[in-house]
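User:
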Amino acid sequence: MVKPRMGLLGLAGKLEVGFGEALSLVKRLGTVLGQFGDVVSPYLVLSDAETVREAIRFFQGQEYDLLVVAVATWSEDHHLLDFLEVLPCYVLLWAFPAVDTGSLCGVHQIACVLKELGLPYAAVYGEPEDELALQEARVIIRTLALRRFLRTVKIGVIGGRIHGMTEIAFDELELKARTGVRLINLSEMELVGRVENVDVWRAEEEWQEVKARVGVVNSVDEAGIEAMRYFLALKGLVEEFDLQGLCVRCYPDFMGRVCLAYSLLAEEGIVCGCEGDAANTIAMKLLFELTGEPVHNTDLLYPDPATKTVLFSHCGSGAFSLASSSKFIQLAPVRLMDRGVCALFPSRPGPVTLVNLVGRRGTLRLSTWYGEAVETGMEFPGNPLKVRFATDFALTNRRILEEGIGHHWMAGYGDVRRELELYCGLSSIRYIGL
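Assistant: Predicted structure:
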């Protein structure tokens, strides 16, 4: 997961009650924020022109995702504005409970000014150790760090999108402008050429190791060795182009050939999207960084009104760690084509956030859907994920159709809706919460 880097300053008025304790309050806050990432601070309280100049000298040349401002008392707002004029950045204002310091009052004043000037900010209220304040601050901090990190991410797109799935057509420049992720377009022949050059003996050794990790193997060794050649070839492309993700135009030519590679690469932190869906591979990367673990790539298959659940799945390219138990993992040919190797297993239960990213310039939209994954059997030959939602499916389905959300849903364990909503706001992506 991305490690945040936070700038920290204090702000206080010299004539106000609490000015003498302002620096110690900044230091308290710095100690607490240290649990989230690196804190960059001169441990200084902005209170006049000289302290502003000193803060600017310290922060020039520094890298940080956001500036946390501990508003210890009411203060003249121009001190912070003068700093931001030289070093503009996202600001997290922190107000502290007190009757006579005017901290919260001061934050309200500054927030009004920043809003009028169109400067990005957020605010929290509470003591430095207050759990609710820290929870909100953590969401903001990790989202800002993620936004900065994604501008360095590269995802390989091999062969483009599949025929007949116009929905996943992607606007490469818009995706770069909004998310920061750069797509590296590679040909299918670059992949095939690498596969042909993979040492067969090495692939066979890898296949034997993989077989020892699962419960059942129904794929023949020939198919397994071919699957591991694709794994090693894809891994080579990841290393050569410094990729953090891949999506292959798998249907129909590479079905069953790249699926196991996807499962194994996911455990190494490489997100892998199916069918050449570049936008939702980026959605996978968002979820991976926010949850810290591999992500499901699914289709919405079947709502069951009797159990108030919805069944999701795809062909079987999920990371082994997503299985309810390793003993339930079976390696078998891919459905429809009856060839190659897929990792088939029922998915583990737990809270999940599902995400879909579609659109182009002017319509790019990210949708989220939150529910509780429940125990399921092999109700589909892939990685079935059965989710119970609090909302009525008929109403949700109507919204999906009205918004044109599409059929690919990425699912990560945990509730990261607040981070995704904030991320969309920062990136000018329309956010849809179902």
